[in-house]
Amino acid sequence: MKNLSIDSNYMCDVMERMLETPSPSGMTDMIVGLVCEELEKFGINFELTRRGAIRADLEGGLHSPDRAIIGHLDTLGAMVKGYRANGRLEVVPIGTWSARFAEGARCTIYADGGARYRGSILPLKASGHTFNEEIDTQPASWSNLELRIDARTGSEAETRALGIHVGDTISIDPETEFSDTGFVTSRHLDDKAGVASMLAAAKAVTQSEVTLPIDCHLLFTISEEVGVGSSHVLHGDVAEMVSIDNGTVAPGQYTSEYGVTVAMQDSSGPFDWHLTRSLLGLCEQHDIEHARDVFRYYRSDAAAALEAGNDIRTALLCFGLDASHGYERVHLSSLEALSRLLVLYMQSKPLFRRDREALGPLDDLPTGEPN
Ligand SMILES: [Zn+2]
Questions:
Q1: How many other CB atoms sit within 10 Å of the CB of residue 29?
Q2: Where's the active site on this chain (predicted)?
Q3: Interval between CA 364 and ligand 1 midpoint (Å)
């Protein structure tokens, strides 16, 4: 098993391009196109599902059982819910995020026929000179927000005349900044930072001489933020699946801000005993800074796969993300640690050879440490 060096410049470059490409759940075609082009650059074969989730193939020595690494391309966003009498728009969130973090956001409205409008999401009481201290007492809630369109409109009729419809998708500006201290601050690092570390790992493997023991699929889903996730991109041969998503750097959490975090449990229950411990073992053997954590309000692609009836071993590997679903920040060393671990995981032996079959006798039940 080889430790391969990770091309950090590439990882930052592709992350920046992904962050610049709006992809709220439901409007993911552009980002899917971008990721497909990256895969083509590395000569990686892939297929798309009807709606555009990507299943890429890194070929291994054995074609069964397979493993999969999965990340999501969709992000949070918003949608036009209705018109206000003053011509501004009522909005609802796409995905789960607090109105508190929408206040002041710059955004783009995608109207029919390719028309685009820019605007700002503001609290209803936005003017300090009019509302004074009332601004501080208005609760943060989506019903207390409105979208101010950067166009001349003062009524519902004028806004309708712009061609803006109920149900138009709104993307939120990421406000990305790469600092020379290694931090990246941006919205939507969940999960574009994770996908960047997957692509950096794929680049390292395809540009090296290493051979993988079994097929490894890279799956890129498009509706994680709304809970549908991976269910449709798996096929029967996948026996183990590792989700890549954010770990939360927050009080009471043990997520490593500068290393990789192995999630032991999320809202959907414990992750696979053997797969989880084998990943921890790889971190220990190869000196990768790591931590374990348990998440309370968290549901990853893995849960969707299991709920869809797939009998597979799942794990969740996280990069450390501060202020997730808000003003997010990640450190590059965490993404590099994650990439290094993925490169090792791809080269590792299948957890259990018996996992090639969906059903087997009692003798096959794993008892000790993974082989
Ligand atoms: Zn996520």
A1: 11
A2: 224 (proton acceptor)
A3: 35
pLDDT tens sequence across 301-335:
788 888 777 889 999 999 999 999 999 999 999 99
Q: Which CATH number fits domain 77-172: 1.10.101.10, 3.40.720.10, 2.40.30.40, 3.40.50.410?
A: 2.40.30.40
Domains 8-75+188-364 and 77-172 in one fold? no
* Residues assigned a catalytic role: 224
Residue 361 has a CB neighbour count (10 Å cut-off) of: 8
Give the strand pairing for 260-266 and 290-294. Answer: parallel
Show me where the domains of the chain are located: 8-75+188-364, 77-172
pTM score, two decimals?
0.94
Asked whether residue 190 is marked as a ligand-binding residue, the answer is yes
pLDDT tens column, 248-282: 999 999 999 999 999 999 988 999 999 999 999 99
> What six digits make up the tokens of 242?
């590792």
Q: Does 274 show up as a binding residue in the annotation? A: no
Ligand 1 centroid distance, CA of 327 (Å): 14
In this predicted model, what pLDDT tens digit does every residue of 129-164 receive, in sequence order? 989 998 899 999 999 999 999 999 999 999 999 999
pLDDT for residue 230 is more than 80: no
Report whether CATH 3.40.630.10 matches the domain 8-75+188-364.
Answer: yes
| Residue 227 pLDDT greater than 80, yes or no | no
For the chain, strand residue ranges (E) read 45-48, 54-58, 60-72, 77-83, 89-94, 106-110, 116-123, 145-149, 169-172, 177-178, 183-185, 212-221, 238-249, 260-266, 269-270, 290-294, 313-322, 329-331
| 241 CA from centroid of ligand 1 (Å) | 16
* Residue 371: predicted pLDDT: 46
